[in-house]
Automatic annotation (TrEMBL):
The name this protein goes by in its record: Amidohydrolase/deacetylase family metallohydrolase
Stored SUPFAM superfamilies: Composite domain of metallo-dependent hydrolases, Metallo-dependent hydrolases
InterPro entries: Deacetylase_Atu3266-like (IPR020043), Metal-dep_hydrolase_composite (IPR011059), Metal_Hydrolase (IPR032466)
């Protein structure tokens, strides 16, 4: 496989790719096209066939691969070395750092990454330094509103929201108090709040009543008592109403927060998540969630339509962090794409409750294209059932 990530910046041609997740008027379904990206990283031309290109143009033969807006994992933990759960960078960190240690995440991870990495700032000063062993929300002394505001103002280019873990195992007897304070700060700082829902107290019902347009419920399909959206019809209606109020429902799979049963039932009633994310971290990577493509494959298998899965993995999360892509295929737009195949394959997986399922289609990413650079996909996989080599690139589990 040719590697283009470190090649000199010359024009890049993506040949014979099939757009998905873009404006349907501009990209007819299943139509193959060529996309020419200039050395400056901006789209120069899109057409069914581009035969005249400069001699130094690098070419990726998509061979009918899908191309979508660049995938964005909305909920990850990437402060590698700064917390005991974080892994190496993906894209949006969901509260690993608080105001007392955000500078480390910024200097050592965000500013050194090839990817665009954004972050939700944990309202607890220490963030997830020792996740679930030392709570970031034990007492009021764990939250410093002045320092939170100063940290946000100094990092507006990368901080995209505030993170609150509204769960009884974190906040003990505080119930809704941390979330109320987080919402107040969000209004003052003009930022959305991402809320982790889990074990009561608070109850999922009460959390929803405090949220507004643009706020994010992560772990929306968890199967925990008190946070289980199928446990009573009133709660399910509240979640539907939250969606209708433009509150973002985010999967946030994680090691303890995604149930096949809950997701399947919600999808059967047309309650779809707006965003799909992994909540990938060091405590889950050898268990139920180890990469983004497999997480997307789970939602596809549960009945979420292909194009909706792609939107929930690409343009929707960018809107959720107020960094929308715009018209990526328009001439002059900066390139940000993911090339992938959808393989007919068999892969045994689990949800975070340990329930097994077998996937029969799996997403197989080939390249991430950012500007004029292209990174071939590389993935970590735990020891799972092996499957046949990809016919396009030879990759094998």
């Amino acid at each position: 496989m040719t590697v283009f990530a470190n090649a000199p910046l010359t024009p890049l041609l993506l040949r014979a790719v099939r757009p998905i997740g873009f404006d349907r008027a501009a990209t007819p379904a299943n139509a193959q096209m060529d996309i020419l990206i200039g050395a400056d990283g901006c789209v120069e031309a899109c057409a069914p066939r581009l035969d005249t290109v400069a001699a130094q143009t690098r070419i990726i033969d998509g061979d009918g691969a899908w191309i979508s807006p660049g995938w964005t994992d909305l909920h990850t933990h990437v402060w590698y070395g700064g917390t005991d759960i974080s892994i190496k960078p993906t894209l949006v960190d969901a509260g690993s750092a608080g105001e007392a240690n955000f500078h480390g995440l910024r200097e050592w991870i965000i500013d050194r990454a090839d990817e665009e990495i954004y972050a939700f700032l944990n309202i607890g000063s220490i963030g997830l330094v020792a996740c679930n062993r030392i709570s970031e929300l034990s007492t009021m002394n764990d939250i410093d509103v002045d320092r939170i505001a100063a940290t946000v103002e100094a990092n507006r280019d990368r901080i995209v929201g505030l993170k609150v873990r509204a769960s009884g195992v974190i906040s003990k007897g505080w119930d809704l108090a941390p979330l109320k304070l987080g919402k107040k700060l969000g209004r003052v700082l003009k930022l959305p709040v991402m809320v982790h829902v889990g074990e009561p107290l608070p109850l999922y019902d009460d959390v929803l009543s405090l949220l507004g347009e643009g706020d994010i419920i992560t772990h929306c399909f968890n199967g925990k008592i008190g946070g289980f959206i199928l446990e009573d019809e009133d709660l399910f209606r509240l979640v539907e109403q939250a969606r209708d109020r433009w509150i973002v429902l985010d999967v946030g799979h994680g090691g303890a927060s995604f149930s096949f049963e809950v997701a399947r039932a919600a999808l059967s009633r047309q309650l779809l998540p707006q965003t799909i994310s992994t909540d990938i971290h060091g405590h889950s990577i050898d268990g139920s969630v180890w990469d983004f493509p497999t997480t997307l494959s789970k939602l596809l298998a549960l009945g979420m339509p292909l194009e909706q899965v792609i939107i929930a993995a690409s343009t929707a999360p960018r809107r959720a962090i107020n960094r929308p892509y715009g018209e990526l295929l328009a001439v002059g737009s900066r390139a940000n794409f993911t090339l992938f195949h959808l393989l007919d394959d068999t892969l045994r997986v689990k949800d975070s409750k340990g329930v097994e399922s077998v996937l029969h289609q799996v997403f197989d990413p080939r390249y991430a294209v950012i500007g004029a650079r292209a990174w071939p996909s590389s993935r970590y996989r735990p020891q799972v059932k092996a499957h046949a080599a990809c016919p396009h690139c030879g990759w094998k589990a």
